[in-house]
Amino acid sequence: MNLLPKSSKEFSSAEYWEKFFKKRGDKSFEWYGTYTELCGVLHKYIKPTDTVLVVGCGSSELSEQLYDAGYRDLTNIDISTTAIARMQERNSARRPSMTFLCVDAQRMEPFADGSFQAALDKGTLDALAPDGSPDTVERVGRVFAEVGRVLRVGGRYVCVTLAQEHVLRAAVEHFSGEGWAVRVHRVEGQEGGFCLPVFVLVCTKFRRPAEGSAALPQILEVCEGEEGPPRRLGAPEELLGAVMEIQAYALLRSQLASHTDPAQTPTLQLCHTHTGQPRYSCHVVDSPAGATLHRASHFAVFIVPQGRETNWLFGTAEGRSQLAGSAGFRRLVVVAMHRDQEYQDMQAIQSELSAKVMELAPPGLPANHQVPFLSVGGDLGERSVMHRGSSTFSGDFVVEDVRGDEGRLYRRLIFLSNSSVVQSENLLRETGNPGSGRKRNRKKKGQRAESVQAPPLKGRGQAVDRSFLCCAHHRVMVSGLALLRGRGKDLAESPVSVLLVGLGGGALPQFLHDYVPGSRVQVLEIDPAILQVASGWFGFEQDDRLSVTLGDGLDLIDTLAQGGNCTYDVIMFDVDSKDSSLGMSCPPPAFVEQSFLEKVKSILTPQGMFVLNLVCRDPALRVGVLSVLRGLFPLIYDCGIEDEVNEILLCQQGPQEQALTPPELLSAGQALQGVLRRPGQPWDSSLDIAALLENLKIA
């Protein structure tokens, strides 16, 4: 029997409901849950002594159950004569004081102004508002006006609803505009059969201020359960956004509870109840079909130590998938902690997260299953924010010190608009102990690290170790200088000139200055704030061989090309894009357009090299970039970086026939290593240039 409409617009027609109730017969029809599921919220806002108008009663048992619970003054209205007749027949003997009238909620002429203390609506508003069309807005506006007329001052419109955006928007804008208090209450433990949560909208009528007096402040609140205080919001849009977040989470829970899907790795944020600030980021990862699982290993939670959330294993979908596979659980929730939040210890975190992560459990989880909490070494990690700033170009940013692999200290620059990416990183060493932080053994993917006890970050003296390049792509860019030797450039005898676009924390240009003999390095940087950060927090120092020119790299290179009297041995691009919607995050697209790259080529020496740090997730876009580069530089070496999205393109002007053979690359790498590693200077023993050059291939 077809009882649901073919089109949602039919909900608003009297003809549909008349037909519906005739087909339904004497069976009750419960929109969005039963009395048992709703009574906790309803009793909070409607008193047994209130005069109550039930708007659109249909054949629901709700008003009957309210009557049986002590509510006697109940007036029920509905647009369907069939529904009213059947409800009268069903209740005349057992509930004699209940009233049933065939009245349209848009025109409630039988009732005088201020007749009721509460108006109860269970699904009627949703039925009258199938869409956001002008006709619908006008229709529900008439209902709202009539509800406002028949309610007394202090009375409440209590509406059980799915709170679709157009429905909630219409109600909130109308009643808040009338000066009413508006609260949206989530009904706990009830999904209404729609895979969406059910809400109770409570609008309380206030007396209008006298003409000429100040308007009352808006009262907009949301309650996510029956317990706990409501959360006050500042504007209707914030209230709508809060409800949409609850709905999205309910839909996600429904999906996660119904099936596992290794192809989907949903992420959600858990926020502080009172401040609304993000506290945890949770990534849900399912193991692929056929994966080897440990016995009874259904579900686990992995806590990422603070400061390690940007590591490949924890900060990328690929890394988290590998982590889940090696852990051997059907579903693994990878949890990252946020900066600016206090965390006591692992036990406190487990206690705080236990109830919420169980909502993310896979289907078929056995009852009373004990969910293990995992981590690296069993500690929370350490992170200390050293500096905060804001930039016109990059927005808000932080400089923070974190304890990383094997207890070593690192200083990082993070743009908060993309907080999962480390923009710049330097190794720190304790003042007075130069060798304490230099050696770094890179951990293999999935390998567990031992917990290292060390003093707290704050209150210690640290200096930036300029001999250590933390970023793998910087190591490759430096190693690429070995290719100049194959073109007749001996760095030991002939100083190299470098133009670098993008300063960051200054680690790359500072290393070139300190370790390439006689090098002259000019940096183009658009953001004055970044220059201040590099100088103040990352040990960057300018002199007569290392300088920074502030300005747009596109304009500055155009000026250099027009001048025609300045050339460089090496031009490097290490600049990110601020547009996260693009499939290429480094460099911005304008930097790899043919017309601009022609200008770049014009200021290279004949034997010079263009070095591009490319981060491109769009295969078609990457093909386009390579096509443009090949038209200008016949010989291009490509070096991908393990566990990272970066690849380094080393572009030269000679033909491919001049490409170095593997023995020649080995010899050039060893020669460059000998040039850079000079007696008396600190040196990073893990920097093996010849080994890095083994990864080069012709693009």
TrEMBL record:
SUPFAM superfamilies: S-adenosyl-L-methionine-dependent methyltransferases. Residues 437-446 have a biased composition (Basic residues). The keyword Cell membrane does not apply. It comes from the Eukaryota. Residues 53-159 form the Methyltransferase type domain. InterPro entries: Lys/N-term_MeTrsfase_sf (IPR051419), Methyltransf_11 (IPR013216), SAM-dependent_MTases_sf (IPR029063). Residues 426-459 are annotated as: Disordered. Gene3D superfamilies: Vaccinia Virus protein VP39. Keywords: Methyltransferase, Multifunctional enzyme, Transferase. Belongs to the methyltransferase superfamily. NCBIfam families: MFS_SpdSyn. PANTHER family: EEF1A LYSINE AND N-TERMINAL METHYLTRANSFERASE (PTHR12176:SF78), SAM-DEPENDENT METHYLTRANSFERASE SUPERFAMILY PROTEIN (PTHR12176). This is eEF1A lysine and N-terminal methyltransferase.
